[in-house]
């Protein structure tokens, strides 16, 4: 089957994070937290998982005195996510009667 099923996107939080990063150049931690309605620890865990896979990258800066952590999808992350979506689309087509 065309595409590639990727276990990194098995969890709905990671799937949503990648979806957001596919349409936004970058996104910050607090905005993710608000949009996804998850706890700090839960979100951090999923972001760390995607970072470990090298699907997202992190940049840290300060806005005034407040730290700001932004995330963006890497080229390999975008490619892996597209392949995952392609797999799911083909799976649906294959099972359509």
UniProtKB/TrEMBL annotation:
Domain Winged helix DNA-binding: 13-92
Residue ranges of the TM segments: none
InterPro entries in UniProt: WH-like_DNA-bd_sf (IPR036388), WH_DNA-bd_dom (IPR027395), WH_DNA-bd_sf (IPR036390)
Gene3D superfamilies tied to this protein: Winged helix-like DNA-binding domain superfamily/Winged helix DNA-binding domain
Domain of life from the UniProt record: Bacteria
Pfam families reported in the protein's UniProt record: HTH_34
SUPFAM superfamilies to which the protein is assigned, alphabetical: Winged helix' DNA-binding domain (SSF46785)
Name of the featured protein: Transcriptional regulator
């Amino acid at each position: 089957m065309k595409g590639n099923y990727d276990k990194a996107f098995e969890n709905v939080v990671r799937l949503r994070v990648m979806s957001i990063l596919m349409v936004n150049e970058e996104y910050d931690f607090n905005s993710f937290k608000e949009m996804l309605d998850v706890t700090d620890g839960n979100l951090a865990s999923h972001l760390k998982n995607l970072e470990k896979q090298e699907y997202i990258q992190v940049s840290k800066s300060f806005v005034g005195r407040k730290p700001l952590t932004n995330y963006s999808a890497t080229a390999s992350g975008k490619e892996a996510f597209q392949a995952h979506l392609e797999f799911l689309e083909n799976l649906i087509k294959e099972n359509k009667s």
